[in-house]
Amino acid sequence: MSDTGNHVAAAGDTGRATHGEPVPGRSSRRRLTVVSGPSGVGKSSVVSELRRLDPDIYFSVSVTTRAPRPGEVDGAHYHFIDRAMFDRMVAAGELLEHAEFAGNCYGTPRGPVERALAEGRQAVLEIELQGARQVRAAMPEARLVMLMPPSWEELVGRLTGRGTEEEAAVKARLAEAERELAAAGEFDVRVVNADVRTAAGQLLDLMNTDFESIREHHE
Ligand code: 5GP
Questions:
Q1: What average pLDDT does the chain have?
Q2: Is 99 in a helix, a strand, or coil?
C-alpha cells in the first residue's frame, strides 16, 4: 500500500459543498456516520477528539461480550453484557448491526441511535468492517468513513510499537488490518490519520457537508 490518498481534499474539489443545508425528502439517516479502520489506526483517539470538538454529536455506546479493560467504564466505553443477553438482543432485533471480532461479540443498540437521529442530531458509530457493511446495507444514506494510516509501514510501527503483544498476536492484527484496508474502496470517504486533531477536524467538516457532494463514485 503505497498511496492511501486523502480523498477529503478531492471531495472538496467538486465545489458543490453546501454546508448544513437540509435536503427535502431525504431521511435523517444521512446524519449517521460510521467510522471504521484497522486496529492501530487511532480510531478511538480521533473519535474522542471529535467528541471534544462537537459535544452535540451522539456517540453510540456498543454492547460487547468482551471483558472490560482496566479503566473502562460500563455504560461509557461499552455496555458489558454476557453472551446470553447479546443473543437475546440480536433475536429481538435490538441491534442495528453486530459482529464477532477477535472472539468477542459487539453490537450497536438500535434505539438510542434512532432517537438521536429523530431529534435531528448527528450520530457516530465507531465499528469494524463487518458492522459497517451491515449499516451500508440497512441504511444506504449513512456516511461511511475509513480511517487510514499514513502508510502501511506506519501502521506496522504503531502495532508492533505497543511492545506488549506477543508476536503471534501482532501478526494476527496485521493480517486483519490488511483485510480491512483492502475494503477501503467500499467506503464513501477515506481520511488519513497522520495527526489526530487534523483527522478529527476533517471528519467534522465531512459531517457538516452535504453528503451528495462528497460521495465518491467507485469504479
Ligand atoms: P475493542 O475490543 O478493541 O474495543 O474493539 C475491537 C473492534 O470492535 C474495534 O475495531 C471496534 O471499532 C469494533 N467495535 C466496537 N464496537 C462495535 C460495534 O458495536 N459493532 C461492531 N461491528 N464493531 C464494534
A1: 85
A2: strand
Atom number of ligand 1 nearest to Cα 44: 12
| Interval 73-115: pLDDT, tens | 999 999 999 999 999 999 999 999 999 998 899 999 999 999 9
Residue environment code for 169-180, b if the CB has 16+ CB neighbours within 10 A, otherwise e: ebeebbebbeeb
Q: For the chain, list the domains and their CATH numbers.
A: 1-10+21-57+122-219 (3.40.50.300), 61-121 (3.30.63.10)
DSSP character at residue 66: S
pLDDT digits (tens, 9 = 90+) for 115-157: 999 999 999 999 999 999 999 999 999 999 999 999 999 999 9
145 in Cβ contact with 206 (< 8 Å): yes
Q: Which of 4, 10, 1, 44 has its CA nearest to residue 206? A: 10
Closest residue by Cα to residue 83 from 98, 96, 97? 98
10 Å CB burial of residue 193 (0-12, 13-18, 19+) is buried
Q: Which residue, among 147, 168, 185, has the nearest Cα to 102 in the 3D structure? A: 168
Residue 187 burial (10 A CB sphere; 0-12, 13-18, 19+): buried
Q: How far is CA 139 from the centre of its chain?
A: 15
Query: Which residue among 59, 106, 125, 176 is best mutated to probe the pocket of ligand 1, counting the most ligand atoms within 8 A of its Cβ?
Result: 106
Task: Let me know: does 107 contact 138? Beta carbons within 8 Å.
Answer: no
Q: Whose CA is nearest to atom 10 of ligand 1?
A: 128
